[in-house]
Amino acid sequence: MTRGKRKKGKRLPLDQQARYLLRFKLTTPGGALLAVSLVTLSVGSSSMLIPVYQLVCAIFSLQLISFLAGWILRPRLKVSGHLPEKGVVNQPLQTEFRVQNLGRWPVFDLAMHYFMLPKHLKSLGEEEHHAGLGRSDEARMTASLLPEKRGVYSLNPPYLYTSFPFNLFRTRSDRRSRTFREERSLTVFPHFRPLESLVVPAKRRYQPGGVPYSSNIGESMEYVGNREYRPGDPLHRIDFRSWGRIAKPVVREYQEEYYLRIGIVLDTQLLNPRREPRTGHPTLEAAISLAAAVSDYLIGQDHVIDLFAAGKQVYRLTAGRHTAQLEQVLEILACLEPATENPFPKVNEEVGEYLAGISCLIGIFLSWDAEREKMVNEASRMGCGNRILFVEDREGAIQEPKSFPSVRFSPNEILEGRVGSL
């Protein structure tokens, strides 16, 4: 029987080790004292003054004692809690954890804080400190972060540590005592202002199989009522209970469903992409926010929507009634990236398959060209209503469509929540 090899821990690259040292391991006073010690050492190396050497030795002794004391008294803690799984842009996420001391000694100056976060996630607030935690004692501690951009992130748990005794170095809790070590996925949804009203130029259209057809469950028809039996009516529709009450044959009557099914086409192609700001391209983020608001309103009105997101690939999702709900729509919108090439040749093929059942097509465009016009013309030919919404970063940047009325918004209007009705 062979003994399995022990897996070696994955070592961080040098740049990440330096980042860990500067951002977590050293406290603010510890960093200042380290800078003073380096300056003192450089002065002492070029001088024969005895007091300078004594000062250097005193500083390094203080740092060594602080480091060794933190390592020897490293806390053993049991942590219970759940990391956040979903959030919204620019809305703080606060999580509470229960901490129990499993060690043989009390833990002094215990703190919790997020460090080494991914880009676009920011730790919010000051480090929460707990003055002392006795043996087997419990405490509740919170950690907060702020997502600055939509997306999906790998989130590490907040660090639990102590800076005892001199607040020069932070010492994390014993690795064996952590209850959650793995990363968790955090999905950050786009922020949007719910719409108060939305004009949809559409009429109800026949949907073969009704709502269950749109959710791929099967075909069904809506029950309307009963009527007297007529020769030729299917026997399986006879209502025997009603027949027994009125002493003559009665059949159930059904009507195939007609309802509004709205198509939403979201354009993500930036024609003049500049360097991406920390919070994303304002024009694209505004278009995504507007698509979220439109989807939220239509699903709330019990309509079925088909979302076509034209990015690097074409995303399609049916939502509303018995199908996917708003959260699934927001998950797709959270992951969208700007398209580098015109996606509408593929979008036209995808949308064309569903135009026969779509009542209205709402296009949220960042530009206008022949391919986009072709899609809107085809929708009109198939009997669909049209709403064209433009998001433009400067007035007059998009050429006015000649055949269709349109509404224009600036990114600031949408992102600041000034669009309440369409």
Per DSSP E runs of 2 or more residues, the count of β-strands stands at 21
The largest pleated sheet is described as: 6 strands, mixed
Low-confidence stretches: 1-9, 211-220
**Rg over C-alpha atoms, rounded to the nearest angstrom:** 32 Å
Structural class: alpha/beta
Number of helical stretches of at least 4 residues: 10
User: What coarse outline follows from CA principal-axis ratios?
Assistant: elongated
Strand coverage percent: 25-35%
Instruction: Kindly report the average pLDDT value.
Output: 82
Helix fraction, binned, reads 25-40%
- Determine the N-to-C terminus distance: 73 Å
Give the spatial strand order of the biggest sheet. Answer: 18-17-16-19-20-21
Topology record:
Blueprint: H1 14-25, H2 28-45, H3 50-72, E1 77-80, E2 86-88, E3 93-101, E4 107-113, E5 121-124, E6 128-133, E7 138-147, E8 151-155, E9 159-162, E10 171-172, E11 184-189, E12 205-206, H4 210-214, E13 222-228, H5 240-246, E14 250-255, E15 258-259, E16 261-267, H6 282-300, E17 304-310, E18 314-319, H7 326-335, H8 344-352, E19 360-365, H9 370-381, E20 385-391, E21 406-409, H10 411-415
Parallel strand pairs: 2-11, 16-17, 16-19, 19-20, 20-21
Antiparallel strand pairs: 1-3, 3-7, 4-6, 4-9, 5-7, 8-11, 9-10, 12-15, 13-14, 17-18
Helix pairs in contact: 2-3, 6-7, 8-9
